[in-house]
Amino acid sequence: MSTPIENQLPIPLADQQSSNLEEMPITQHLMVLRRHLFKIVGLLLVLFFCLLPFANQTYQLLSEPLRAQLPVSSSMIATDVTATFMAPFKLNFFVALMLAMPFIIFQLWSFVKPALYEKEKTLAMPLLFGSISLFYAGIAFAYFVALPSILHFFISVSPETVAPMTDINSYLAFCLKLFLVFGFTFEIPIITLILILIGLVSTQQLVEKRRFIVVGCFFVAMFVTPPDAISMIMLAIPMWLLFEMGLFFGKLIEKRRAA
User: Fold this and answer.
1) By Cβ atoms counted within 10 A, which residue in 94, 171, 216, 220 is the most buried?
2) What residue ranges are annotated as transmembrane (predicted)?
3) Could you tell me if 206 and 213 are in contact, meaning their C-beta atoms sit under 8 angstroms apart?
4) Is residue 238 over pLDDT 50?
């Protein structure tokens, strides 16, 4: 009995990949993931040790906004014996992690890419690139705009009888928290677009709830920033504007779908 012609046609490459993924055991997936993780750890170690000789200069660059605001008679202090070594050491690891972030996301993308359809791959690449760019933009905004303004406010309101001398570990923790808060906050356009793309919300629903979202931005900023009005405003307003950016691009996507 002859085989039907449709059974003799070659299987498309995408179907072959999906079939191979389904046939792969969980241990094989774990081995692939381990290979990507080894590459990530390897790059982190290389960057960390390459940057280690410049750790003190990196910390001086981080502390420049504070040192510019301190009175002439004040300086930064170390309340722990190991602080002069550990603070630049921690900052060095954070810088290495930030520099390696595009490679880390690329490795994670390479791991999940075979399981995605072509349409999902087309949408994922701009979203990944946008998320990395916005994260770096958030850190840059925090360092060049928010941090000097916040430090100026706190030092200007200190009593005249008190000489502000900040511990280097406390300052590092404060800066890292601020950088991460602004970095993740700048991901709001990406989150908004993803919610629209998966159909969880529509732009019309977001427009109707805009007033509540704006209030929510100020509410969130009040809890994740230092306890002053300047910090809250400098985070809440960018959150609102970034939401409007995501809403704008979401409307373009919906119009493109309708067309």
Assistant:
1) 171
2) 37-55, 93-112, 124-151, 171-198, 210-226, 232-253
3) yes
4) yes
